[in-house]
Design a protein that fits this description.
17% of the residues lie in helices and 41% in strands. The chain contains 4 helices and 19 strands. The strands form 4 sheets. Strands 1, 3, 4, 6, 9 and 11 form a 6-stranded antiparallel sheet that branches. Strands 2-5-10-7-8 form a 5-stranded antiparallel sheet, with no helix packed on it. Helix 1 runs antiparallel to helix 4. The radius of gyration is 25 Å and the shape is elongated. The N and C termini lie close together (12 Å). The N terminus and C terminus are likely disordered.
Length: 319
């Protein structure tokens, strides 16, 4: 019995070190945005749909997996826009009434996004029965949103959620987000990790630029910032919101093997956003001298030591 107890204690301690928090299941349906398409430049990065417009009548369509609107009566989109959203509407597509985003009455509604072109995150909730009466009780297969109708506008969909009940009308203050970024130069080769470009933060300001190697800590330095007045002029903002970076990182003494260097930006509220990653292979035979991996190595060693020590102590008690 004592030996069984000892094994159980070790198991509990081990689980305590490696446990992962799991949230309770929700009745809401969070739509996978990866299948988004449009008649403009549409890309999915970091789980968000980013649409860069060039004029005309731009739109982005997001497929959904046969959602029963007799059960899920509402949907909420979290979005941001740098230019006014076009004068067109939000459309729903289903399996029978409107299978092709037609102009059938009751299958579309005004987007309700006017006056939100500030680059910050906003939410808009639609009541399907009230806003799209023809679609109530049907099986949805897609949602189409109008995007910014001015050249070089950026419309971003951060999330799309269907719910059985109307969400709270109180909108929590949105945290910062990486609205856009661009690499003029980027690589990892010959012992050097290199990144040069710019980043644009929404609902916050730029704090620091930095990098990390593999799953190590982020390394920041004020010298990585680089003035980009051209970017600020293009977006009509100052350097606190959009600015440049230029980083040349010595990766020649990273431990031998395959690695990834990721360049990041930290906003003033502490949020850190990945901007781009590059793989490289190190042939260095000496000890790892990269400051971004030291902490991870120490934690791993300490964890193993803790488990081993616990086993020794308990084994002595059950003898």
């Amino acid at each position: 019995m004592k030996k069984l107890l000892a094994i159980a204690i070790i198991a509990v301690m081990t689980l305590g070190l490696f446990a992962v928090s799991v949230n309770a299941a929700s009745d809401d349906i969070v739509v996978d945005l990866s299948g988004a398409t449009g008649n403009i430049d549409v890309k999915v990065e970091g789980g968000k749909v980013i649409c860069t417009t060039t004029g005309g009548d731009p739109w982005v369509s997001i497929p959904v997996d046969n959602i029963d609107t007799s059960v899920y009566n509402y949907f909420t989109v979290k979005y941001s826009a740098t230019k006014e959203v076009g004068s067109n509407n939000t459309y729903l597509m289903d399996t029978s009434v409107n299978p092709g985003y037609s102009g059938t009455a009751g299958t579309w509604a005004p987007h309700g996004m006017a006056g939100t072109a500030d680059g910050a995150a906003h939410t808009k909730t639609y009541d399907i029965a009230a806003d799209f009466p023809t679609m109530a009780g049907t099986t949805l297969t897609g949602v189409r949103f109008t995007c910014c109708n001015d050249m070089d506008g950026v419309f971003t969909v951060e999330s799309l959620v269907f719910s059985k009940a109307a969400p709270s009308e109180t909108e929590e203050p949105a945290g910062s987000s990486l609205l856009n970024k661009c690499f003029d130069e980027g690589y990892a080769a010959d012992g050097v990790g290199r990144a040069k470009g710019w980043a644009h933060i929404a609902n916050g300001t730029i704090g620091e630029f930095g990098y990390r190697i593999d799953d190590g800590k982020n390394v920041f330095d004020a010298s990585y910032a680089a003035s980009r007045p051209d970017v600020q002029e293009a977006f009509g903002v100052d350097a606190t919101v959009a600015d440049g970076f230029e980083m040349t990182i010595d990766i020649s003494k990273v431990a031998k093997g395959d690695h990834t260097i990721t360049f990041v930006v930290k906003a003033s509220d502490g949020n850190v956003f990945d901007m781009g990653s590059y793989d490289f292979t190190s042939t260095y035979e000496g000890p790892d001298e990269n400051p971004g991996t030291a902490d991870a190595s120490v934690i791993a060693i300490a964890t193993v030591a803790c488990i081993a020590l616990a086993g020794v102590v308990i084994a002595k008690k059950v003898r």
